[in-house]
Structures are given as C-alpha cells and as structure tokens.
Prior knowledge:
Blueprint: H1 2-10, H2 15-24, E1 27-28, E2 35-36, H3 58-74, E3 80-85, E4 90-95, H4 103-117, H5 121-124, E5 147-152, E6 155-163, H6 168-180
Antiparallel strand pairs: 1-2, 3-4, 3-6, 5-6
Helix pairs in contact: 1-2, 3-6
Amino acid sequence: xxxxxRRRAALGLGAAALGVAAVTSVxxxxxxxxxxxxxxxxxxAARGDVVANPxxxxxxxxxxxxxxxxxxxxxxxxVTVVVLDRSGTVxxxxxxxxxxxxxxxxxxxxxxxxxxxxxxxxALAGRVTGPGATLRDMPGTLFLAGGVPVTVDRQVVGAIGVxxxxxxxxxxxxxxxxxxxxx
Length: 183
C-alpha cells in the first residue's frame, strides 16, 4: 500500500495523497478512501530540508479584504474582493452586495496573477501582447488591472484582487487601499 503511494508520488501523481499521509500520520490507500494506523512512525525531515513560505495570517487577510470592499463601496461600486496567500490559495473572499456573478472569478484570477508574478496586474498587461505564446496562455491568470501583490521586506506574502468596478484602474486602486492597511 505505501509502496503504491511512493511510486505514484515519484510520478507526480500521488503527491497530495503522500502529503496527507505525512501530515496526519496515517497510511493512505491510493485505490480507496480508507485510512489505517501506520506500522511505523512517520519519517521526519532535517531542518535544513525545510523552507519557510511566509503568508498573511487570516486576521491580516480579512482586515485587508474589508478595507478594500469598504473603499469600493464608498465610491458606490459593487465588487468582489479576494485575498490569496503566498501559494495562491484563497484566504478571504468578500462579495459585496449587488456584485455581479463574474466578479469572484475575475478577482481571484487577478490576485493569482499578482501573487504569481509579484507585480500588479496592470504592470504585467503589456507583456501579454504579440504573436505566439505569452503569459496570457498560463492557466488561471488574468492580465487586467485590479490585482496587487502584498509584500513584506520585498518578499511576496499574498495578493489582493478586485473585480467589478467600472474599470481595472478602479479595481486596482481599491486593492491598493486594502494593501495599505497592512503596511
């Protein structure tokens, strides 16, 4: 059973299952959704083999999202705000009253683009033109203004994306207002 997981992890297919096994200290049967007690304790890694990936904590993410939404609502715009952690996972999503159904996807993709490239989406927009493959071909990205990275000591720790204002420039202004609460 564990050999099967290791074989799949080596192929890049079972990494998630292996991660669950390591974190929860249970053996995972890759062919069924059952767990059993492991025969041996989980292996541990040396400190030098582990990297730290700082991210916003949930309180900071919520505070930034609320400030972003408040800035948009003050101007009368109905938006959705998404805050992602460093790995691109949604920490907070606030859909303002009356925000359209497309705004959540837009905000998420803008934040994902900003956290992935460590730049505001407006700065990246010029790099997606021309013939052939460009950054625009990367899944999950959106090169419209409205996504800003959040940094600490020049290290990206998250991103804020906004969708729904009448222009990307406004979306980005609101995202910046939220990011400013974290400085």
